[in-house]
Amino acid sequence: MTGLVYITGASSGIGQALALQYYRAGWSLALVARRDAQMREWAQAQGLDAARWRVYAADVSVPESIAAAGRACIAQQGLPQVVIANAGISIGMDSAYFEDLQVMQQVYATNNIGLAATFQPFIAPMRERRGGTLVGIASVAGIRGLPGHGAYCSSKAAVISYCESLRGECRPDGVRVVTIAPGYIDTPLTRQNRYSMPFLMQPEDFARRAFEAISAGASFRVIPWQMGVVARLLRVLPNAWFDRLLAGRPRKHRQGAGHPPEAGKT
Question: Which end of the chain has fewer surrounding CB within 10 Å, N or C?
C-alpha cells in the first residue's frame, strides 16, 4: 500500500528517517517542522520529487498551530492514510527547582498536548472514510521512571495510555491507532545522555522496522525487540530491585544544570 503520510518532527532524527523510508517505499510526504526552510532544503538535497512532498511550518507545542497544519494538509494534499505524531522533546529536570516545573510544562505541551492536537484534525474525516492509521511515537522510557527524567518518562507513559484510549475509541470506525516505543536511537536527543544506552540503533534501522510494524497493523511495538524484552522485565521488576538497579546511575542533565538547591530554596 502507498499513499500520503503526515509526519511531525520531520526535520531531524527519527522523523527525517521515517520520511525517507516512506518516500523510498513510494509514498507522498506531508512534512511538519518549525524549521520549514531547513526542511525544504533537506528534501531538495535528497533529490525528492517536488510533486511528492510538501512542508508545513508549525509549532507542535501550540495546539492552534499544529491543528492548522493538519487542516492545511487535508486542503492541499488530501486526507493522509497514515499520520505519525513523532515530534517530541527530552529535557532533564529536578523537582527541587521551582523553575523546572516550567520544564515539565514545556515537555507535556509538546509530547502530550501536541500529540493529541496532531491527531485531532484527522480523526473525524478518517472515521467518515472508515480508514486510516494514527501513529504515536512513545518510548521505552515510558515504562518506568528514570532519575532526572521525570518529565520525559511521565510524558511518554502518558503517550502510551493516551494512544491505548484512542485506539479503543477509533476501532469501531475502522481507524487504527499504533503505538511505537523506541529504545535508544542515535539522535541529537540521545547524544546528550551521560549513561549507557544498550541496543543503540541508527535512525534508518529504526525507521525500517517502524514502517514494517505500522504496515503490519501492530497496535503496540517496542523497537528494537531486545528493548521489548527489557521493557517486559521492567514492568514486573519489584520496586526494591528496580531502585537497586538504578543506584548510582547518572541523572539526565537539567536544562541549564547547576548545583542542587539548598533545602527550601527555589
Answer: N
Contact between 175 and 132 under an 8 Å Cβ cutoff? The reply is: yes
Least confident of 176-180, 206-210, 226-230: 226-230
Q: What is the CATH number of the domain that holds 236?
A: 3.40.50.720
Q: What is the pLDDT of residues 86-104, one digit of tens each?
A: 999 988 899 999 999 999 9
Asked if residues 157 and 136 have their Cβ atoms less than 8 Å apart, the reply is no
Examine residue 264 and state whether it is found in any structural domain, yes or no.
no
Residue 141 domain flag: yes
Question: Is 162 in the active site?
Answer: no
Say which of 23, 56, 97, 152 is annotated catalytic.
Answer: 152
Computed from CA positions of residues 15, 49, 132, 211, in that sequence, does the dihedral angle turn out positive or negative?
negative
Q: How many domains does the chain have?
A: 1
Residue 260 belongs to some domain of the structure? no
Residue numbers of the domain that contains 15: 4-241
If you average pLDDT over residues 227-254, what whole number do you get? 74
What is the pTM assigned to this prediction?
0.88
Query: Residue 159: what pLDDT?
Result: 98
Say if residue 132's pLDDT is above 80. Answer: yes
